[in-house]
Amino acid sequence: MAAFSSLTEKLQQAFKKLRGKGILSEKDVSEAVREVRLALLEADVNYKVVKEFIGKIRERAVGQEVMKSLTPAQQVVKIVSEEMTELMGGAKSSLVVADKPPTVIMLVGLQGAGKTTTAAKLARYFRNLGRRPLLVAADVYRPAAVQQLQSLGEKLKLPVFSMGEKVEPVNIVQGAVKRAQKEGYDQVIVDTAGRLHINEQLMEELKRMKETAEAHETLLVVDAMTGQDAVKVAEAFHEKLGLTGVILTKLDGDTRGGAALSVKAVTGCPIKFIGMGEKLEALEPFYPERMTSRILGMGDVLTLIEKAQSQVDKDKAKDLERKIRENQFNLEDFLEQLQQMKSVGSLENILEMLPGNAMGKQFKNLKIGEKDLIKTEAIIQSMTIQERNNPEILNGSRKKRIASGSGTRVQDVNRLLKQFAQARQLMRQMESSSRGATGKLSKKMKNKRFHFPLFR
Amino acid sequence: MVSLVPRLVEGLAKTRKGLLGKMGDLINRSGKIDEEFYEELEEILISADVGVKTTTELLENVREEVLKKRVKEPAKVLDIIKKNIQEILGEGTSALNLEGVPPRVFLVVGVNGVGKTTTIGKLAYFLKQKGKTVLLAAGDTFRAAAIEQLEEWSRRAGAQIIKHQEGADAAAVAFDAVRAAKSRMIDVVIIDTAGRLQTKKNLMAEVSKIQRVVEKEVQGAPHEVLLILDATTGQNAVSQARLFGEAVNVTGLVLSKLDGTAKGGIVIAVRGELNVPVKFIGIGEQIGDLRVFNSEEFVKALFGEEGSGSR
Ligand SMILES: Nc1nc2c(ncn2[C@@H]2O[C@H](COP(=O)(O)OP(=O)(O)OP(=O)(O)O)[C@@H](O)[C@H]2O)c(=O)[nH]1
Ligand SMILES: [Mg+2]
User: Fold this and answer.
1) Which residue has the higher pLDDT, A412 or A76?
2) CA-based nearest residue in chain A for residue B53
3) CA of residue A110 to ligand 1 center, whole Å
4) Given 3.20.20.80, 3.30.1490.20, 3.40.50.1000, 1.10.260.30, which CATH number is that of A302-444?
5) Four-CA torsion B244, B248, B249, B253, nearest 10 degrees
6) Which residue(s) pair with A188 in the sheet?
7) How far apart are the CA of B114 and the nearest CA of chain A, in angstroms?
8) Are B178 and B218 in contact (CB under 8 A)?
9) What is the arrangement of strands in the sheet containing B160-162, beginning at the earlier edge strand?
């Protein structure tokens, strides 16, 4: 939670100010937009990019859309995430395949961005697509860079083209393309030495490499933790080389990755892949919506679930997942969930963490204090098993009985039932949206590849 | 190896131009201290990766002083900012912990690709120049060819090296290195470690273990735990400093790749959070491209005065 908290808090404060106000003044909107701006800056989105972006947001927010809306907070979130997702590329894009093989891909970027590892990941990716990749070791500057790629090639059992460290990189790529043509490799992946965007001679060298190899794709590898300079770096590489895409690395950490937005904004090049770990399979397609959620800090949902998960034992979690899926989630489960949430942190906090700001008002009633929890417990405990499993059967007289049994009022029972219905709906929403990609909830969580619609 | 094209920029010259250019322009341009002026100051600081929080605090202090001292000229504001940044960064230089019974044990940590291994090469050379004997421990047993990379640096710097196979236990390498250093009467042991993201609990536990192992072997060890931060990193550096600080006893920061960025403002944000001095800056890929960090000169350089921010 720590990782995202300040960003989320900021946005939430902003939206809280908007929430519940009904009709908004221009000043209200400005206030919220200001908070969004700070949040983006904290996420390392470039200052100038933020300025422009915020301009757009303000325009839309001040317009009818938000000010007349009964749910202004939701509207602002919607506008921000729509605009951001669009800025980051709308739909995902794929890599070019040359009409006449081999397709040549060059990886370029600053020192330490992760080019070598990414080259190996791409080779693996192509092999899995049934292609024949050839890795090319063209980093002759960094000590042992050639060995590094060779060693990765060995691990993958894929060929690495190398001419040692004493040959000019331009000649290496030339040799590599020839080799590929001769031996039927259809995908050439060139690892280049990291270099500074301000080093004109080395930038010139890249340009010659690109021209010699007639590269089809020139991909900028960018460390997702990069700060404000990401813009300058991307601009310089793009200007010199005409980039065709970007790969963001090290997104498995807690960086908010604002560089993604900056780089996309200044180059216009699509982000084609993201690196999610040191393992060679940790290369994933880029989904703009997920990145948006991440930059906006909506990823807290995952943290919440992980946190709750660590408190619940695995079987229970599985059971719960099944119940939600089969719509069998009942009041007893509800009670258990509430109790677990209590041990995770105050309910208020938990609900704040949910992308519920997007759902905001709808779940406002879900806010239950610790005192209410005791009441809730008493109410549920006054129900028969049948009632707990099947709350639909609760009619007036049953409710009366339960109220007197638990020392509460019928309104309390009704409120609880309403909350339960909302919780059930929320859980189903969460569950079904998380299932789209690869299967079961619990398994994905275990693999840390849990893809919330609003995460990563 | 093809010789590296001669470096085009001397590290901090860039840094200097970065803030100076902009601040100078602003001061020359602004007749008075108004909201617009503050907003532009904010832009300059945030664009230098100083971060929202630190920038806001900094500017609050500045506003306060401007009011209190009834400052009217924009130029004076510069002095106030400078003073405030200086306060955050602490004073002068912070020496390496070299005094005491050898071997002195240094542990080098950081996220992937920040420049740990290169910095170790440079640091070994720096210490050799001072007449110390140095032994490197190839503690990155994870990344492909990390051992070979460090070996190359040990050759360049004229340092000894202790290594195991790829995949070996890093703590065992550190242990052997420290033992070897004791029996060979080595002055300084520098332990390389695999890059790791600070959020990976198990990997962070591994660096803690390395620290514990050397603690047991040599009194007071590790005498330095250097956290390498990439100067192009944004606000995540704060998280890096915090979480590495929780896992190991970080004694100093090294700001690498300062030749690439006009900024380095992240160090202000990090120092605003954590009380650990910056000890060195890296200004290139060559063995001599390491400078002792001097905060006064750094601040001067930031604002384009005398000195290069380094010695
Ligand atoms: N321009 C510049 N490049 C640097 C500097 N320090 C290191 N590098 C380069 O950054 C890249 C990564 O450096 P390494 O020393 O391998 O980084 P590391 O932290 O050991 O990397 P891992 O072990 O892979 O985590 C190399 O290409 C270095 O040459 C510096 O001060 N300036
Ligand atoms: Mg290394």
Assistant:
1) A412
2) A42
3) 10
4) 1.10.260.30
5) -40
6) A104, A134
7) 6
8) yes
9) B160-162, B134-137, B188-191, B104-109, B224-230, B252-256, B278-282, B290-292
> Would the CA dihedral through A401, A402, A407, A410 be positive or negative?
negative
Question: Does any ligand 1 atom lie closer than 6 A to the CB of residue A109?
Answer: no
Put the strands of the sheet holding A245-249 in their side by side order: A160-161, A133-138, A187-192, A103-108, A217-223, A245-249, A271-275, A283-285
Burial of B28 (0-12, 13-18, 19+ CB in 10 A): exposed
Assigned fold of A103-291: Rossmann fold (3.40.50)
Amino acid at A233: V
Cβ proximity of A251 and A227 under 8 Å? no
B148 touching A, CB under 8 A? yes
Highest mean pLDDT among B40-44, B51-55, B209-213: B209-213
ipTM: 0.90
pLDDT given at position A26: 76
Q: Which atom of ligand 1 is nearest to the CA of A194?
A: 27
DSSP string, A27-93: HHHHHHHHHHHHHHHHTT--HHHHHHHHHHHHHHHHSHHHHT-S-HHHHHHHHHHHHHHHHTTSS--
> Scanning the structure block, which residue is given the tokens 């709808």?
A362
Cα–ligand 2 centroid distance for B297 (angstroms): 29
Alpha carbon distance A21, A73 (integer Å): 10
Residues 6+ apart with CB under 8 A from A443: none
> With an 8 Å Cβ cutoff, is A198 touching chain B?
yes
Tokens of A418: 């309403």
Give pLDDT tens digits for B77-106: 888 988 999 999 988 888 999 999 999 999
B185–chain A Cβ distance below 8 A for any pair:
no
| Ligand 2 geometric centre to CA of B311 (Å) | 26
Q: How far apart are CA B56 and CA A430, in angstroms?
A: 37
The nearest CA of chain A is from the CA of B101 a distance in Å of 33
Q: How far is B192 from chain A (nearest CA, A)?
A: 15
A146: nearest CA partner in chain B: B145
Question: What are A360-380's pLDDT values in tens digits?
Answer: 333 444 444 566 777 888 888
Domain ranges of chain A: 5-87, 103-291, 302-444
Q: Which of B146, B150, B149, B126 is nearest to B136 (CA)?
A: B150
Asked if the A5-87 domain carries CATH number 3.30.990.10, the reply is no
Answer whether B135 touches A (CB < 8 Å). no
d(CA A108, ligand 2 centre) in Å: 19
Give the best residue of A229, A237, A266, A448 to mutate against chain B (max B CB count within 10 A). Answer: A229
Residues B43, B52: Cα–Cα separation, whole Å:
10
Q: Which of B285, B290, B257, B296 is closest to B49 using CA atoms?
A: B257
SS3 breakdown of chain A: % helix, strand, coil, rounded to 5? Answer: 60, 10, 30
Alpha helices in A157-199 (DSSP H): 169-183
| pTM reported for the whole predicted model | 0.77
Distances (CA, A) of B168 to A146, B141, B163, B194: 22, 6, 9, 12
CA distance A30 to A41: 16
For ligand 1, say whether the CB of B116 is within 6 Å of any of its atoms.
yes
Between CA A156 and CA A139 the distance in angstroms is: 19
Residue A307 above 60 pLDDT?
Answer: no
DSSP state of B107: E
Residue A226: DSSP 8-state: B
